[in-house]
Design goal:
Blueprint: H1 2-105, H2 114-125, E1 140-142, E2 145-147
Antiparallel strand pairs: 1-2
Helix pairs in contact: 1-2
Amino acid sequence: MSSRKINVSSSSEDDEMKYAMITDEKKRKRMISNRESARRSRMKKEQHIKDLNDQITYFTTKKVEMVKKMEEIGQRFVAFDSENRALRMHGEELKKRLEMLEKMMHGNVSEVEEEDDRFVMDILQDPSLKPWLQPSFHSNNVDGIYQF
């Protein structure tokens, strides 16, 4: 009987050893799988961070470009606004001059007031009425022929 016990005992030890080996193998495979999964997770995280940094760079560059364009547009707006105001003032002045000239042409000289006299003098002295005296009016005399 003692030999049977030994056989039973050794059989039971063999089963325990096989179970331990199987368990160890499963643990080892699980550990390897977990390590691989963690490595993939780290790589995915690194790629995501790289993508986010690329986006930061892209949007920072776009912001700088947009701020520059906005400043240029602002400067152009100021220039156009200034030119627009100057043109409106000049248009009003020309309108007044036209009204006075129309009064003078229709013989309503009595309607022309002292203040209007100043405008009449300005009109008569206006260089735009004498373009040939303007500095931009150039003529060259070549062989007695004027070239413009």
